[in-house]
């Protein structure tokens, strides 16, 4: 897939049109994939003129890449506060050449998972999941945007915290695997939403269910310990 420049002079009207296209494209590309999402389908979903796609994005390819960047930005916005606060603390420790305390790492990780589990079960994240799953199966340049924009940095932060809890190097294979497994235990509530509802015998996920999921997420952090044979 070739990349196309989408630079345009923005006005309030053009900003609104681009936003409509990006929001609609996230849903349409997620449902039908790149090949199945025609420009007509994309324009109709956004409620804009068909010529808006080549005008603002250079074509469908440019819109697809811009949609991935838009997705990364939307998700990043939801976790910006905790991400910046934890990142600032870690940077201060690095500057002082001090290690991250395991207790503080647990507190930070608990805050993060409480935020993420609510995000994962939100209606908004349905479109995100469909788009990301397609890119996980057949990665394109769009996946690089999502990974570099939000997934990679958040996973790396999680590795840093989990490494401190396990008293192991965050760059070690052990911590990488433990971190991916830990993240997977939270992603299941989005990626396997139907199975979660069936197993839990819930007909929806409301405030009561979210409170239970957050408590479960806190427990996942609480039981994180080095496994037998791992460094302590």
Q: What is the alpha-carbon Rg in Å?
A: 20 Å
List segments where confidence is low: pLDDT < 50 over at least 5 consecutive residues: 2-7
CATH class of the domain at 65-223: Mainly Alpha
Helical amount: over 70%
CATH homologous superfamily classification of the domain at 65-223 = Tetracycline Repressor, domain 2
The CATH architecture of the domain at 65-223 can be given as Orthogonal Bundle
- Structural category is mainly alpha
Shape: globular
Number of strands: 0
What is the average of the pLDDT values?
92
Pfam families: CecR_C, TetR_N
DNA-binding region: 38-57
Domain HTH tetR-type: 15-75
GO molecular function, one term: transcription cis-regulatory region binding
Short précis:
The protein has 232 residues and is mainly α. It has a domain at 65-223: Tetracycline Repressor, domain 2, CATH 1.10.357.
Description of the molecule:
The chain is mainly α and 232 residues long. It has a domain of 159 residues: Tetracycline Repressor, domain 2. Helices cover 76% and strands 0% of the residues. It contains ten helices and no strands. Helix 5 packs parallel to helix 8. It is globular.
Give short descriptive properties of this protein.
Tetracycline Repressor, domain 2, globular, mainly alpha, single chain, 232 residues
List the helices and strands and how they pair.
Elements: H1 12-36, H2 39-46, H3 52-57, H4 60-95, H5 102-120, H6 125-137, H7 141-166, H8 173-191, H9 193-200, H10 207-222
